[in-house]
Amino acid sequence: MANAIEERLAALGLSLPEAAAPAANYVPFTVSGRIVHISGQLPMRDGKVAVTGKLGAGVSLEQGQEAARLCALNLLAQLRRACDGDLSRVKACLKLGGFVACDPSFTDQPKTINGASDLMVAVLGDAGRHARFAVGVASLPFDAAVEVDGTFEIA
Fold first, then answer.
1. Which residue ranges make up each domain of the chain?
2. Strands 146-154 and 35-41: what pairing?
3. Nearest 5 degrees, angle CA 36-CA 66-CA 77?
4. CATH tag, 29-154
5. What is the pTM of this model?
6. Beta strand pairing call for 146-154 and 90-101
């Protein structure tokens, strides 16, 4: 029987990808007690970065929001691994950190990362409401347009 998170994902027409392997010398997540820290996730789709470039310089706000949404799906995939496949253990999304590769004049980083925040609330309900930061950066790994990390509470 599917849990509530899987049912919400299905209702949105979404499924979680396989959790990506780390791209360097780090682990994809750490668990300390009831807290899971998930390393930054890129907007990966089918094993490739789906949205590359810089917002305000060829990448639109809408493309950036889609990139953030993909990052959130990848966060949830890592969270599923951290929960041994049982997303019903998720109690809350505590914090998201959003990095937006952008032109220096671009100032809509918060709107961009809303792509991830909105998905967390849609999938986790009130447990998806979280603290957050959204900052602009000069570049991200593999020319990704967005990267998002997260901290969650689990049972």
1. 29-154
2. antiparallel
3. 30
4. 3.30.1330.40
5. 0.97
6. antiparallel
